[in-house]
Amino acid sequence: MCGRYSLSKSKEELEQRFQAEMLSELKPRYNIAPTQLVPVVTSQSPKGFSYFYWGITPEFGKNRPVAQKLINAKAEIVNEKISLKTAFRQRRCIIPADGFYEWKRLGKKTSVPYRFTLRDDELFSFAGIWEEYEAVNGDTQHTFLIITTTPNAVVSEINDRMPVILDQSAEKKWLDKYAEEDDLLNLLNPYPADSMLAYTVSPLVNSVENDSPSLIRKTSPVDQHGNYTLFG
Q1: How high is the pLDDT of residue 85?
Q2: Residue 86: pLDDT band by 50, 70, 90 thresholds?
């Protein structure tokens, strides 16, 4: 699964990379988590950034453990599962990022966080789908899911799933409202392993309360208890 990611670039860098306008200011984020409001670009409005909640809204999510939240959609079933297929056909989006996190399990209670980036540390996007619904107070709200696929050789050392990463060419196809289903499904593959890097980061990333530049820096492998490990 994909449960945390970073977006530490500037507003200007995002606007240039995605050729879309951002009307509000952007604060660099180093530890984005489910239920948070983050920028996306949709197939309905490809020339501007929208702000959607990841998975579910904070109001809905505060009474449920993170493990029960729907934050990802599997590429293998996104066009078949009743709860996903309409969004796949009609409501696609891309989610800007510059890295994501996964945890390598070393035991029942021990894990080490890793950050994954592209080799040149450039911006990229995840493939996503989104939903619109009316909240209890009558407001219209939007949520999105990140699509995951089987891992490449870099990610498979840590996890059995990875987010679908799109390059600029694939983004245009994913946001094309008239794209054929088979062409869309062909985009949902593991990103080339030789174009990615992985490195260990601070266990401070474990807490969603932490969101600082130190979280994306390479550190010696340390588990969540602060113990140095032999695994890199």
Answers
A1: 93
A2: very high
Residues β-bridged to residue 99? 6
Domain map of the chain by residue range?
Answer: 5-216
Query: What one-character-per-residue DSSP string does 93-126 give?
Result: EEEEESEEEEEEEEETTEEEEEEEEETT---EEE
CATH code of domain 5-216: 3.90.1680.10
Phi/psi of residue 217, each to 5°?
-85, 145
Lowest mean pLDDT among 7-11, 53-57, 141-145, 165-169: 53-57
Establish whether 102 is a catalytic residue: yes
Q: Cα 44 vs. chain centroid, distance in angstroms?
A: 20
Give whole-number Cα distances, 132 to 45, 129, 143, in Å: 14, 11, 7
* Residue from 76, 102, 157, 181 carrying the catalytic annotation: 102
The catalytic position among 2, 13, 171, 209 is 2
β strands within the chain, DSSP E: 5-7, 29-32, 37-42, 50-54, 72-74, 92-97, 99-107, 110-118, 124-134, 140-149, 162-163, 165-166, 196-200
Q: Which residues pair with 41 in a beta bridge?
A: 94
Total residue count of the chain as it appears in this document? 232
- Catalytic residue flag (residue 2): yes
